[in-house]
């Protein structure tokens, strides 16, 4: 059954018309219902023992990120040291995410640590360049040691209905990734509607995304609970239909332990606990790790450490 459906989905992209018909044939998202459900799940409280486990799980899912024009090799090395050994027995994070020119620095600093090197690519964050440049950006990052590539979709093409262009770019970038995993950033803050978030999620998955990611962190709103919910529904439904599991990465604006735990509740309730591992769920964030470490220490000792105890990101 699954293979028949997979085959029919493969045909979906055989022409622009069939792709459009498929994406516009997806059920519409009930915006009010999605907002209410996300808000309701965000109020769930968890017991202290479960909280300690949730904090460590969240730390292990962090893609510790720096994407600033002012980034230096020194800053990236310091981040990598913290990513691999956050301190006080906390688990290592999932990945360090940097611009392509800093991949080699991160790869050297993280060698043997188990922490992956992720690189944004494809003319991040706007995606406004030729396909040739995007593919080369990707190939260079992979050659420098990236284990994971975070590409952006062409939002202009998507919003003007040129789904084939978006699809073909993802397929080409996926090919340039080789063994590296591909995360496809939808930039949901520019997609206007939840229906578009659902369509872009399916488009990325059909084209071969290993992960779908909400945002670049450069556009607001970024990873709202509602868009994460819509994307979790999409990966759940995609797996039901094809048998292939795709990961989810909310990114941008996730700053506190509360934000992180709300995301874990969403994953558990919407996609299911098979997504509750760093293999299938990531939190893209520049500063949440410090708060997770502070709350972790508070739970263990009953008090907060001084403000200079944790290195600043
Ligand atoms: O992918 C991650 C984002 O770029 C980080 O955004 P943030 O600085 O809001 O945590």
From TrEMBL:
The keyword Transferase does not apply. Pathway: Carbohydrate degradation; 2-deoxy-D-ribose 1-phosphate degradation; D-glyceraldehyde 3-phosphate and acetaldehyde from 2-deoxy-alpha-D-ribose 1-phosphate: step 2/2. GO terms for cellular component: cytoplasm. It catalyses: 2-deoxy-D-ribose 5-phosphate = D-glyceraldehyde 3-phosphate + acetaldehyde. The keyword tRNA processing does not apply. It comes from the Bacteria. GO terms for biological process: carbohydrate catabolic process; deoxyribonucleotide catabolic process. GO terms for molecular function: deoxyribose-phosphate aldolase activity. Its EC number is 4.1.2.4. Keywords: Lyase, Schiff base. It holds the Pfam family DeoC. It is an enzyme of class 4 (lyase). Belongs to the DeoC/FbaB aldolase family. DeoC type 2 subfamily. PANTHER family: DEOXYRIBOSE-PHOSPHATE ALDOLASE (PTHR10889). This is Deoxyribose-phosphate aldolase. It comes from Nonomuraea pusilla.
